[in-house]
Specification:
The complex is a heterodimer of chains A (188) and B (284). Chain A has 188 residues and is of the alpha/beta class. Chain A has four helices and nine strands. In chain A, helix 1 crosses helix 2. Chain B has 284 residues and is of the alpha/beta class. Chain B is built from seven helices and twelve strands. Classes of the chains: A alpha/beta (188), B alpha/beta (284).
Chain lengths: 188, 284
């Protein structure tokens, strides 16, 4: 079994602040220095986000199995659920499920909307999507390698249901960026 | 100062921090929406900033520099004791300088100095629900937020204008966040409301007794409610600070004797001290 964070208290804190910064300034890429070396197919940033946010109180839906799922069960202690509709967090390393398959919360309890932790091939700033919304002074750019073509359309569709919705944390290698539900995404 | 080994870093246990951190992220994703959280009992009573302290404790790392203010002042009981608390349980550096701080926990003021992208401001909130004096049932206000049904607050402002000729709210002046959620800015003076609009720093709000966390992300629209013919005005006492001469800062009125003597001084002690120091330098 691979270990989790070397320092569970301070590494979690550093990783949370990176996620906090990513969520407050959508599309700005954060680099996680203190990330664990998880079993394949998990990337260090993905593993850090999971260790920071997921625990026994948060049902997880995931498309990983084998050693990675065992690692998650051991370190996060999270229940793994078979349907995305039951999840508080969804960990996806392959093709992302339809956003509408994840819980979006209700108008009174929009915070019950799920968080998608989506591992992608690579993240790059200064190119790609044009992002605007809360947290962004004028415009941020974000290129998500191999994002499905239908994603922007689905994201815009979800935006019409605000405050209901899903928030996403994108991970690649040691890099991490976040897409809160308030974000508007346009093709670059 | 090193952290007291008898406590986990920053006092809270890791499960609690994780729960609060999840609430903070959702609060940022839904600007102005009150996210419930499992507020813990803290070693000081409700009303002394237990919500703000739990938010700060979930953020703090060993490299942070913390500033705590109470009504603008760094040297009041609440500010001193919270600073001491975090020095003891987290061993972090503290400051009174607004510009040196990475996290500013505040009770009822926003510093006069402009906050920057590298900073986070944490507000202590006694009552997160902006409509609680108009509708005491939280089940109802939850529904009103869900439907963005804020007519009752506009009626209250209208009645103010009808009775007093102006909107008579001096502090805790309700704001609309990102054009969607009505939010209590905590009991800051209405003078500070314009500073919240499109602020480069992240703004987090913690209410310990009511167990709610909410947030305003950077560069987010925060509009004080008003009417076209009665636009919002930020009030301040007419006068200058008696110590530093500032004519643009928020002033406290201080009674100096029992014969009607009084003076106005800056409520933001750091702003005032910096101005006094630069005046002495210029004179020298």
């Amino acid at each position: 079994m691979r270990p989790g964070f070397a320092d569970p208290v301070l590494d979690t804190q550093a990783s949370f602040r990176a996620i906090l910064e990513a969520m407050s300034r959508p599309g700005r890429i954060q680099r996680l220095e203190a990330a664990p070396t998880p079993p394949a197919p998990l990337a260090p940033a993905t593993a850090a986000a999971l260790l920071t946010l997921v625990d026994a109180e948060t049902p997880l839906f995931t498309d990983v199995g084998g050693e990675a799922a065992d690692w998650l069960r051991f370190h996060c202690g999270c229940p793994i659920v078979p349907q995305p509709g039951q999840a508080a967090f969804a960990l996806i390393v392959g093709a992302p499920p339809s956003l509408s398959a994840l819980p979006a919360g209700s108008d009174e309890d929009p915070q019950a909307g799920a968080t998608l932790i989506w591992q992608v091939a690579a993240l790059r700033g200064e190119a790609g999507w044009r992002l605007s919304g809360p947290g962004i002074e004028r415009e941020h750019r974000l290129e998500v390698r191999d994002a499905p073509a239908s994603f922007i359309g689905e994201w815009a569709e979800m935006g019409r249901a605000f405050p209901r919705g899903v928030d996403a944390i994108l991970c690649a290698g040691r890099d991490l960026a976040a897409l809160p539900r308030t974000l508007r995404i346009r093709e670059g | 100062m090193t952290a007291d080994p008898g406590y986990n870093f920053a006092y809270l246990d890791e499960n609690t921090k994780r729960m609060i951190r999840r609430a903070i992220l959702k609060a940022i994703a839904i600007p102005g929406h009150q996210v419930p959280f499992g507020g813990r009992e803290m070693p000081l009573p409700y009303g002394w900033g237990t919500g703000g302290i739990q938010v700060t404790a979930s953020l703090l790392g060993p490299d942070d520099v913390l500033k705590v203010i109470d009504q603008g002042a760094d040297d009041t009981t609440n500010a001193v004791s919270i600073r001491h608390f975090f020095r003891r349980v987290a061993g972090i550096a503290v400051t009174t300088r607004t510009r040196e701080a990475s996290i500013i926990q505040t009770r009822h003021r926003i510093p006069e100095a402009k906050l920057t992208e590298g900073q986070i401001i944490v507000y202590q909130v006694p009552m997160p629900e902006p409509m609680f004096r108009l509708e005491p049932r939280l089940t109802e206000t939850r529904r009103m937020h869900g439907l963005a049904d804020y007519g009752v607050m506009h009626v209250k402002l209208y009645e103010d204008v009808a009775c007093h000729g102006e909107i008579s709210i001096a502090y805790n002046y309700p704001v609309m966040v990102h054009g969607r959620y009505l939010m209590s800015p905590s009991p800051i003076p209405a003078f500070d409301n314009p500073k919240m609009d499109r602020m480069p720093a992240l703004q987090l709000f913690g209410a310990g007794r009511e167990k709610r966390i909410y947030a305003v992300p950077p560069y987010t629209s925060v509009r004080s409610l008003d009417f076209e013919d009665h636009p919002f005005r930020a009030h301040r006492a007419k006068g200058c600070c008696a110590l530093c001469g500032a004519g643009d800062s928020y002033l406290d009125e201080v009674v100096t004797d029992d014969r009607g003597g009084r003076m106005f001084v800056c409520s933001d002690t750091d702003y005032c001290e910096e101005r006094q120091a630069s005046r002495t330098e210029n004179a020298a």
